[in-house]
Each structure stands twice: as structure tokens, then as C-alpha cells.
Amino acid sequence: MTDTAVVPPDVLTAVRTKHRALWALGDYPMLAAEVIPGLGPVLVEAAGVRPGDSVLDVAAGSGNAAIPAALAGARVIASDLTPELFDAGRAAAAAVGAELTWAEADAHALPFDDGAFDTVLSCVGVMFAPFHQTAADELLRVTRPGGTIALIAWTPAGFIGQMFATMKPYAPAPPPGAEPPPLWGDEAHVRTLFGDGVTDVRAEVRSLPVTRFASGAEFRDFFKALYGPTIAVYRNVADDAARTAELDAALLDLATRFQDADGAMGWEYLLLTATRR
Ligand SMILES: C[S@@+](CC[C@H](N)C(=O)[O-])C[C@H]1O[C@@H](n2cnc3c(N)ncnc32)[C@H](O)[C@@H]1O
């Protein structure tokens, strides 16, 4: 493990407030259910979750990975900074007969004991905690020796990584010391974060087929209405019609470049598993 990074408490508090409000915007649970429901089961399978395992899903949202882990027979805590997402998660779990616990928790300061979990998962989740070393140290801390850490993160070069790069010039300034989310999709970065806290790192770049959007405009308008980070960026330029039109055009162009003639896309992600030393 590398040295624990120290983020000033007032900076962490401000980030928590801002990011919780951001992820509560729009309708993230609907987006997850309609666009990326395939990712959670992929992560649960890669992690080798077994009946009876104690599993923590970090930045679980509405349970995309936590619910399939519970269906696999594990004892699961779905934790997230944004408890506004839990009602949808509870409804989704009830609909498939999954039982799990929901807990409000910041990935930078997990309210769980050292070594409490056999498996710690995060599906395009912990990547959004901006202080990467602090969050990585927390994942290591709560995983028992010999336990598994399994992550999915959008890559920098893939579609969602490029969407964040496209939005960056229009976004509010990040807090000091923040690192960009798609860096968690870079294997070398994650290996550095975990350092010698893990062994047996396995990493694979995969692509999620996305057929939800018939056109670039449909993609852009869906994200503009439902996805917190995109909504927040549009709000940041809301009083500047020219900048808003520029952002509209940039997102349309990006989506169109990634779509084939039928509108299908592949969203690239890193799937990484490791054993806690
Ligand atoms: C893209 S969503 C992924 C949710 C879920 N894992 C899924 O696959 O649908 C990102 C999630 O990260 C959560 N999040 C952002 N910052 C966080 C933090 N510092 N600690 C814990 N969760 C955080 C958000 O509330 C949101 O639910």
C-alpha cells in the first residue's frame, strides 16, 4: 500500500455536499437500468462472489452490482454517498427477491472495520471519488487479507472517458487535489494506487454494447436530462447561450463519432480484480 493520502477535512466535506447533490440530479437509477444493467453481473462474476460471502459495494448507486451479488447468495452492503438513490435500489431489489443492506457512505472514509469484507466491489463507482489514493486506501483497508477487490471503470479513451473530456471545459473547477474519474480506467494508475497492498492483479479492457440510442441527439438529450454530471455541466453554462450551444454540438459530435449506422456503440471499460495481500 502507498502512503495514505491526507485530504483536508473541510475539502472533503465540501466535496461530499456538492457531489451528493450532483448525483441526486436527474434520474440515475433509470439510466443505470436502461443503459448499463449488464455491467453489475459482469463484475459479480469476475469477483467470484459465492453464497455466504460478505460483500461491500462501494458507490453502489441503485444496486447495479450489489443486487446481483445478493442474488448470488452473498451478504451484501450497498454503500453510496447519495442515499437519494436507495429507494429505487430497494424497489429493484424487491422486484427480484434480493435482500441486502443500504448504507450512506463516502468512499473516502468508509464507516466499516478493517478487513470486514471478503469482497469489495465497485462498478463505475469509486472512480467518481476525486481523491483517488484516499479512496484506494479505504478499499484496501476494509478488504480482509486474501479477500478480493473487483472494479469496473470507464477508460480514458473510451466513450464515457471521452464524454468527460468533452464536458471538462464547460464544467465547474474541480476541488484542489482532485483527479479525473477515468484515470481509474487506466490499469497502471490503479496498480500504483493499490501498490503492494494487493497481489494477483488481473486487468482486462472490455466493451459494453449500448444500443439504447438511435442517434447522437437521443444520447445527448437523455444524458442532459438524467445524468447528474452532465446536468451539472449544463447548469454551469446555463446563462451563456453560445457556450450551451457549443456543448450541445460537442456532445452530439462525440456520440455520432462513436455510433455505427444503426446507432450502436461500444463503451470501453477496465475490469480489474486483485487479491488483498
Ligand atoms: C455512475 S454511478 C454508479 C452507480 C452503480 N455502481 C452502478 O453501476 O450503476 C456513480 C456513483 O458514485 C457515487 N459516488 C460519487 N462520489 C462518491 C463518493 N465519494 N463516495 C461514495 N459514492 C460516491 C454516486 O452517488 C453514484 O451513485
Structural descriptors:
277 residues; alpha/beta; Rossmann fold; seven-stranded mixed β-sheet; 11 helices; 42% helix; 21% strand; binds S-adenosylmethionine
Provide a descriptive summary of the structure in words.
The chain has one domain: Rossmann fold (3-Layer(aba) Sandwich), CATH 3.40.50. 42% of the residues lie in helices and 21% in strands. It has helices spanning 9-23, 28-35, 39-47, 66-71, 86-96, 132-142, 159-167, 187-194, 216-226, 228-236, 241-258; strands at residues 54-58, 75-80, 101-104, 117-123, 143-154, 198-210, 265-276. A 7-stranded mixed sheet has the order 3-2-1-4-5-7-6, sandwiched between helices. Helix 5 (86-96) links the parallel strand 2 and strand 3. Helix 9 (216-226) crosses helix 10 (228-236). Residues 19, 23, 32, 39-40, 59-61, 64-65, 80-82, 85, 106-108, 123-125, 128-129 line the site of S-adenosylmethionine. S-adenosylmethionine is lined by residues 19, 23, 32, 39-40, 59-61, 64-65, 80-82, 85, 106-108, 123-125, 128-129.
